[in-house]
Amino acid sequence: MNHNYMSEKSLKQKAVKGVAWTALQRYSTMLIQFVSGIILARLLTPYDYGCIGMLMIFMLLAESFIDGGFGSALIQKKQPTQTDYSTVFFWNLGLSVVLYAVLYLSAPAIARFYGIPLLSDVLRVQGIILFIYAFNIVQQNQLRKKLNFKLLSVVTIMTSLIALSVTIIMAYHGYGVWALVAQYILTALIPALVFWFCVRWRPQWVFSWQSFRELFSFGFYMFLTNLLNQFGHQIQGLLIGRFYSASTMGYYSKANSTERLASTSISKIMSQVTYPLYAEMQDNKTALGDMIKKITLTLSYVTFPLMFILLLCAKPLFIFLYSERWADSVPYFQVLCVAGLAYSLQSVNYQSVAAIGKSRTMFVWTFVKRVIGIVLVVAGLLLDGMRGLLVGMVLNTWFSYYINIWLVSKYIGYSWLRQLLDIMPVLLASLVAAAMTYAVGAFCSLSLYMDGLLKLGVFIVLYAAWSVLVRPEAYQYFCVAVKPLIKKIKGKKNKGKKKLL
């Protein structure tokens, strides 16, 4: 019993450290991306972003093939062997060669599909990333399984800084879309090189079909699920690129990337740490359900008000950050913020079902979600153009969220109705604060930037007052979550003071 207590305590300590390092990585990267977006939006055009956006569906689908679900399978398996790791490594490497050949040969046809000849060369160069991911995926998953987020975080931050510097220099000298291509390649290449030398693991010259089949039995459905998810997430980009101009695609890409930066910034921190923890707790459904509840409420407490603030302040935000050139992105961004409310909670439920080994079930329901999602997006496009397409995306996101919490309800025991009721106070409080803030802004009739600052201040005051006076459960979980991080920061400051004395 004492051993179990010590093991659980050690796991919790690793989790806290993992969250701290992942938070540092995510917010540092987010700050770098934020600065990058501001600078590059002034050096590049919506057309440049649109060209890259048109190709993302092909790149992301190819990357899903490279992982093939084996990364998740290696983490989910409690004691993977050297044979397991080597088998996955060589499989991914061989598959990357095949996929790059497919991309290389199909590049001219894809360029003709969009009517932009430049895309053929861009796709052939950008496709080099496939080899890099295949070379690096085992090392990254070993670090994640061991909860070694310190190295992952440091490398990610340094990579972002180097890639940003090179991209800005290239954009400044007029390389246009090729500056963005260089950024994607460097973002993949630098971690691959660092992890190869820092992680002592090396593949053995062995390939086991038995190991492959064992991992594939779980990973295959994870692969199909990820493939369907990527296609479902990128289908709107494919449609916009085909039926609208590259510039329109660029406006959408900027709106989508800005919204995703906000809606997933915190959930990505949690998901990198929680999936290995979910896998460790897969036999204790009660504890797993309790963890899902705490993470869900903590995420909703922070993300929901953030999305409403961004929706209210969208126009001054975009013009201030990206200039008047990107004003056409604002309506897209505001609609996407509504989808972001649900999207921010997707990974919490999705990963918990994967961690208990229900990969086949996840695939079946992901297939249902994506088919319905594609129908909603295409129907929206046909009925009302771009606006209809975006409304279809919102409906799809909320429908997907419901399916995810229903699966958690069925297989883990945390009721979908209970989960909706748990997040409802935060959603209603954010909605009421947003409505009151909008009314104040409409009454005052200030200039663009002053209006944005006023709305920001009013919303924060209203939401903070609700939190302190009502003290909802989500607020209490949030305080508990940030307390260890605050103590750690204070402890480092006190150590620094003692050294000076």
What's this, in brief?
By secondary structure, the chain is mainly α. 88% of the residues lie in helices and 0% in strands.
How confident overall, as mean pLDDT? 81
Order of helices and strands: HHHHHHHHHHHHHHHHHHH
Number of strands: 0
> What would the principal axes of the Cα set say about the shape?
globular
The class by helix and strand makeup works out as mainly alpha
What is the straight-line distance between the termini?
A: 44 Å
Name the beta content range: under 5%
- Main beta-sheet strand count, sense and barrel state: none
* Radius of gyration, taken over Cα atoms and rounded to an integer in Å: 23 Å
Low-confidence stretches: 1-9
* Residues in helices, as a percent range: over 70%
Give an overview in words.
The chain has 501 residues and is mainly alpha-helical. The protein has helices at residues 2-43, 46-67, 70-76, 82-114, 118-126, 129-145, 149-172, 177-198, 209-243, 246-263, 265-280, 285-312, 314-322, 330-343, 346-355, 359-411, 416-444, 448-470, 473-500. α2 (46-67) packs across α6, α11 packs antiparallel against α12 (285-312) and α13 packs across α18 (448-470). The longest helix has 53 residues, at 359-411. It starts with a helix and ends with a helix.
